[in-house]
Each structure stands twice: as structure tokens, then as C-alpha cells.
Amino acid sequence: MAKINDESKVRGKASLDQLTHHFMKGKLEAMVGSSTKKLQLEGFNNLTKTLSFNIYDICYARTPQHRREYIEYIDEAYNAARLTGILEKIAQIIGAIILNTARQDYHPQGASATMLIAEASLDANVPGMAPRPTTCQDALVAHLDKSHITVHTYPESHPGNGIATFRADIDVATCGQISPLRALNFLLHSFDSDIVVIDYRIRGFTRDVEGRKHFIDHQISSVRDFIDPEIEKRYESMDINLTHENTYLSKMILKDLELDNYLFGAGEEDFTEKERKQIRRQLRREMEEIFFGRNSACA
After folding, report:
1. Which end of the chain is more exposed for a tag (fewer CB within 10 A), N or C?
2. What is the pTM of this model?
3. Would you tell me how many other CB atoms lie within 10 Å of the CB of residue 67?
4. For the chain, which domains are there?
């Protein structure tokens, strides 16, 4: 679907990135061992894993009134209370405990929620849980502010052509053994997603008891390896991965456009065949511009 640079790949096609991953696989396995063998670490796992999940929902609202109603609908459907519920479920899925929550609805539209989290096993100073003796208590407390989940929403509309969009940005940053990738399928089910952009990166290093540095503690070749195949088959997908930098980007765009699902305040029967074709073209162009990150020549 897109021109891929030398450091990227499309699933099923060989590229420099795949060859690099193949070359480094033996080295990686030597570093982290098999999936069933746990690393014996010296103190706390210092790896930071960050998942950035951006979804876009597109619709066509013919009149200014319909566009205002769409914004109001999105504002209510994804208000701060609902977003907080989504974040609570994410924390449950990835096995984290919630230390603090903040949420806010904005005027004229939009909402956000933020949670401070920690590993359930690292229960120092958490109300209702007995503290676990540790020799690195200060390190654990210092790491808590690195583990968080945030979500922000951005509803908007084109001033003249009837297109309205909704974007949700979710960031899950964890320190230690918690993996944010466990929440991927739940996130895809939680939002109507025409376009999905997923960034995953691992930073820092942790040491084993022999002093060797480990820059990654699990196997991964693509973020999409963690997505339910039933979900993935609905999308055209593209990967841009830098495996040797522990950076993974997956972009997904919905294959089939069922027009009735995109019309707000009206149905297909309210438009002529010529109008329906024009609306389909507008919707598809909007989706492709967002997917590729640039305006089309005919915009």
C-alpha cells in the first residue's frame, strides 16, 4: 500500500529489517533465553515498555447540525467516566494495580484520563496490601511514576465537506515485567477503529545476576503478532520496524467500507446513487490521508 524504506517491512515480504531480525535472533535468544526460561535479575527490572495506540473513527454528517450532533455524541460516548473505565480494564488485563486516577472533561469537547500504576507483585506502600520485603525499596518507589496509562480524545469536523473524525490516543508506559501488549485486543474492541496506528518501544536495560545487560526481555517481530487474527484480517496493514532499536510501528486501515455505518443523522436511502459514490470517495480519501499522514493532491 505504501513505499517502504530500507528499514521497514510489509508482512510476507522480505526486507532488510527481516534479515536484520533473523541475524540477531540467535543473539537475542542467547540474551533472553526461551519464552519459558525466566531471567534471574539483579534487583528491579529497569526496562521501560511504552505502547502508543492511536485510533481514528470517520463519519459523514451532511449538515452543520448533524456535525454538531456527532461531536456531542462522541463527547458523551467517550466522556471521562467511560475512559476511566477503559483504563481500569487495561490495568486489570496487564496485571497492574492502580495507585492514582485523574480524569477531566473539556469544553467545548474532548476528555482525558490518567492512571498511575505499578506491578501487582511490587506491592510496597499500597493500601490494603502487605508490603513485600525488598532490598531495593527506594528503586521501586522511584520507578512508580514511570508506569502510567493515559487517554485523550480529539473529536473534530471539516468545515465544509461533511467529514467528521474522532481520534483517541492511549499511552501505556510500564516499568518492570508488566507488558502493555496484553491490552491490544481489548483496545481494538473498545473503539470503532477505521485506522489504527500502534507504536511499541522498549528502552533502557536491566542486568542479570552476572552483570550482563539485557535490552529486551521477550520475543517480538511485529506488534501485530499480538493481535487476534479475526481482528487483523479486517485491515490492510503495514509494519515499519527497527528491531535492532527495539522500536515497532504497525499501521492498519479498514478494508471494507460499508457506507451505512459511516452516515450520521441519515441513511443510504436519503442520498442518490451519485451522492453515495461521492461520499464513499470522500470517506476513503480521508482514511488514506490519515493512514499515510499526508494530504492527497486532489484534496
Report:
1. C
2. 0.75
3. 22
4. 16-20+43-291 (3.60.90.10)
For residue 226, give the C-alpha cell. Answer: 499480538
Catalytic residue check, 298: no
Residue type, 173: A
Active-site residue (options: 148, 175, 193, 237): 175
Interatomic CA distance for residues 280 and 59, integer angstroms: 10
Active-site hit among 147, 179, 193, 250: 147
DSSP lists the bridge partners of residue 59 as: 164
Q: Give the lowest-confidence range in 35-39, 110-114, 122-126.
A: 122-126
Q: Is 147 a catalytic residue?
A: yes
The closest of 40, 212, 44, 51 to 142, measured between CA atoms, is 44
Number of H helices, E strands in the chain: 7, 10
What's the pLDDT tens digit per position in 64-95? 889 889 988 988 999 999 999 999 999 999 88
